[in-house]
Specification:
94 residues, mainly alpha, 78% helix
Length: 94
Amino acid sequence: METFTPAVEEAQDIELLKSMCRMIEDHLFVARNRLNEEIRNYPTPIPRCDAQFNHLYERRAGIVRDLDEVAALLATDSPREDYADLIRRHLARA
């Protein structure tokens, strides 16, 4: 039977959390691509006051911000809690 040190267990936890963050990133890419397609196919002409169209743009901007946040986190060696916080925030919005 293997015994793990706390450092090994923490490293495994971080890798699992990073994997979950990559899954969130994949989900956000799909959502962004869907919104891009919906925006691209939106009937024209589009008046400036079109609330539905403006809402699509706002949603896409939020997804882009979320993607930037995930990418920045995955590009660094962050503490375990940072990954867990990102996952919690994403699940709370879902």
